[in-house]
Design goal:
- The chain is elongated, with a radius of gyration of 64 Å.
- The chain is built from ten helices and 14 strands.
- The chain has a five-stranded mixed barrel with strand order 1-2-3-5-4. A five-stranded parallel sheet has the order 7-6-8-9-10.
- It is of the alpha/beta class and 427 residues long.
- It folds into four domains: 97 residues, OB fold (Dihydrolipoamide Acetyltransferase, E2P); 135 residues, 3-Layer(aba) Sandwich (Rossmann fold); 38 residues; 61 residues, no CATH class.
């Protein structure tokens, strides 16, 4: 008899077997999506793949669904890549999906992902290069097909909400093999037209219908526009490379028009509100100014310049009178002092002059006593050589010519001999 195990043990054993089977890890399953739903709390998605009457349960975690560019929908044939696992509580095996792409466009999806990575590396999707939208655009450019519903939706919304704005249509193809080229040309024309904002839009369609907006040329053209761009391509669940490159993404063409232009009634209401605030502010400022003027008049009356001038004039008159009296007293005292000084100077000058004359006489007498020519009057003579008195016999030599000065005249003599007085030596 075989061993008996519990249900939990069996489910656990089967789960381990499936996990260890390399063929059931990383496999890709093809099928049509049915019963797709997203759990409102966890954000995980659950659906069923069916093909030829066979079904398999699938689960895709919230993080994997967020990373996946394609958003699953019922009725779409897809390729799901993941691992087979057993949900042990109810014994049901299921495919844990990591990636999902539509069948038939898997290669195109991979190509778009490669372009997306390239553009991201170039900085086309960088948040810092996103330009803000103008709050009140005067001219609005719309790049879309003239025959689509998108242009009618945009014009209808703008006409109703923002009739003061000028709308210019730059027609282009929105699908087809050459659509991306016409979109690039229309974007360039719109960017050079001087408009304040550009709406790039088209209505909903299949994955292939939106391929023109998933090209590298269109995404680069969007990122290089100097004018802010709102991208509204397809339905809310559709996301294209043009959406990533645009400054703002709108879920629908109508939403793009609403984002671009504020409602006129709201603007008028804002103007009325600002007008009321301005009026109230002016009235308050005027009332405060009147109060300050009243205060100034009161303070001016209490501190009247005329009263102050009158008081200062009286003080000045009194001060001038005191100054004149003081000046007169000073002059009188000066004159008295000057007379006394003159008297004192006269007496001192006379005394000084008498003393000076007496001294002068004394000095004159002394000078006369020292006059060398006075001795001539007593019978002495002076011997002169070359105009200078001779005081030393040694200064004379034989045949030297001298002048002998008397009181009343002089004679010239020649030296024939000298006596130096040193032990009776005679020359």
């Amino acid at each position: 008899m075989s061993s008996i195990i519990g249900v939990a043990q069996l489910n656990r054993y089967i789960s381990l077997k499936l996990k260890n089977d390399v063929k059931l890890s990383g496999l890709t399953v093809r099928g049509e999506i049915t019963d797709f739903k997203v759990h409102f709390k966890s954000g995980h998605s659950y659906f069923t793949l069916k093909e030829d009457g066979s079904l398999i349960k699938c689960a895709m975690f919230k993080s994997a669904l967020a990373r996946n560019a394609f958003k699953p929908e019922n009725g779409v044939n897809v390729l799901c890549t993941g691992d087979i696992e057993v949900y042990e509580p109810n014994g049901v095996y299921q495919l844990i999906v990591r990636e999902i792409v539509p069948v038939g466009i898997g290669q195109k999806f991979l190509q778009i992902e490669a372009i997306k990575k390239k553009l991201a590396d170039m900085g086309c999707f960088a948040p810092e290069r996103k330009k803000p939208l103008p709050p009140l655009p005067k001219r609005i450019a719309v790049v879309t097909s003239l025959n689509g519903a998108a242009v009618r939706d945009v014009l209808n919304i703008l006409g109703r909400r923002y009739p003061i704005g000028e709308v210019r249509i730059f027609p282009s193809q929105v699908q087809g093999d050459t659509a991306h080229l016409t979109i690039v040309r229309a974007l360039k024309s719109a960017d050079e037209s001087g408009c304040d904002v550009i709406i790039l839009t088209r209505g909903g369609g299949s994955y292939e219908d939106l391929m023109a907006f998933n090209t590298e040329e269109v995404a680069v053209a969007v990122s290089q526009c100097r004018t802010p761009i709102i991208s509204a391509v397809g339905h809310e669940t559709d996301t294209t490379l043009a959406d990533y490159a645009a400054d703002v993404r709108a879920p629908t063409p109508s939403a793009a028009a609403e984002i671009c232009a504020p409602q006129l009634e709201q603007l008028l209401g804002a103007v009325d509100f600002m007008k009321k605030r301005l009026t109230d502010g002016l009235e308050t400022a005027l009332r405060l100014a009147e109060q300050r003027l009243d205060d100034c008049e009161t303070r001016l009356a209490a501190n009247s310049p005329a009263d102050r001038i009158s008081r200062e004039d009286e003080r000045l008159s009194a001060f001038s009178a005191r100054m004149r009296a003081a000046a007169e007293r000073t002059v009188e005292r000066g004159e008295s002092s000057l007379a006394a000084l003159r008297l004192r100077l006269g007496s001192a000058a006379e005394q000084y002059l008498g003393a000076a004359e007496s001294r002068f006489g004394s000095l004159s007498a002394r000078l006369e006593a020292l006059d060398p020519y006075k001795v001539l009057e007593r019978g002495y003579v002076i011997a002169m050589k070359d105009g200078s008195p001779v005081t030393d016999p040694a200064a004379l030599g034989i045949n030297d010519e001298i002048t002998i000065r008397f009181r009343d005249g002089s004679v010239t003599a020649r030296i024939t001999g000298t006596d130096t007085g040193e032990k009776g030596q005679t020359t």
